[in-house]
Amino acid sequence: MVNVSELESVPVGGSSRLTDRISLGVLAEILPRDLIEEVLDETGRREQRSRRLPAHVMVRFCLAMCLFFDEDYEEVMRLLVGSLKDMESWRDEWTVPSTSALTQARQRLKADPLRVLFERVAVPVAGRGTKGAWLGSRRLMAVDGFMLDIADTPDNVTEFGRLDEGPKASALPQVRVLAVEECGSHADIAASCGPCRVDERTLFTDILGALEPDMLVIVDRNFYSFQLWKQALDTGADLLWRVQASVTLPVIEPLPDGSYRSMVINPKITGARRTALIDQVRRGHQIPEGKAIPVRVVEYEIPDREGNGTGELICLITSILDPCDVTAT
Questions:
Q1: Which distant-in-sequence residues (6+ apart) come within 8 Å of 49 by Cβ?
Q2: Which residues pair with 313 in a beta bridge?
Q3: Partners of 238 in the beta sheet?
């Protein structure tokens, strides 16, 4: 068996490593030439005349930049040449273009082909035996956000901004990215990006279309709002969301597994109207449409093992109302 660390040092086709070629080969298998050509036609980005750097090559170049983000343009293209030859997308007499030529070709390509390509191939990949990918018949998905540093240009600063201001400002402008990720495989199936200071809940509305009825979608406490919970439910997916302590969750009925039946109430229902609604539901009345949504609440405590007051009560709400379907324990 060949050790991976040994593969890193094996030169293949010049200075490229075998692992580099393997990475590019996997991309080529997932994104065949025909698919790229279809996307270019769909987005209207196919070149009108023969060019040294045609659009389909630039699509692969942009993907290669994600793999080799520490390398400059020309080095990324050198690493890519071997795979392009294998795919008959590069002629032997061509030489690696200059950074200027690659920059101009990227500008001609624009972002739409890469966005549509992602939408075509970003799908759940976990099989039934994939560890951590399923809860019963439901595919486990998580929504998570992160920040990406981008080039320090005036246009990027204007479009995406920096975190904080003055002496505490981030060194580079940053993009906030929100993704729907398959828990077992860590494959992203949808993503939305925006300025670094945008509310993640705003980005969430852009990726609701990726949620499906066979999923159980997990999110952290900063996402909950009554309206967003309702929108996510409308996709048909089941939900398991952590909520902040400020969310009032009346106990309607204790359940055998330690969870309890409750409801999230439209924030427009306040004061005496809110109290009356809770009393009515506790007496067995149906929840009026638009005023509240039934949920099941699961609470558990993280103990203070250090003795410094860091213990915490975690509160989760779920759309799975029957504890016999999925138990809290």
A1: none
A2: 301
A3: 216
Give the contacts of 213 (CB within 8 A, at least 6 positions apart): 235, 236, 237
- What's the pTM? 0.82
Phi, psi of 274 (to 5 degrees): -65, -45
User: Which pLDDT does position 18 carry in this prediction?
Assistant: 45
Low-confidence residues of the chain: pLDDT under 70: 1-23, 49-50, 82-94, 309
Q: Which helix (H) or strand (E) holds 216?
A: strand 215-219
What per-residue confidence (pLDDT) applies to 143?
96
DSSP class per residue in 221-280:
GGG--HHHHHHHHTTT-EEEEE--TTS-----EE-TTS-EEEEEE-TT--HHHHHHHHHH
**Beta strands 238-242; 215-219: pairing state:** parallel
Between CA 130 and CA 185 the distance in angstroms is 8
Is-contact 303 262, C-beta < 8 A?
A: no
Q: What is the pLDDT at residue 259? A: 97
Residue 298's SS3 state is: strand
β partners of residue 175: 148, 195
Residue 38 φ/ψ region, left for φ over 0, alpha for ψ in the -120 to 50 degree band, beta for the rest: alpha
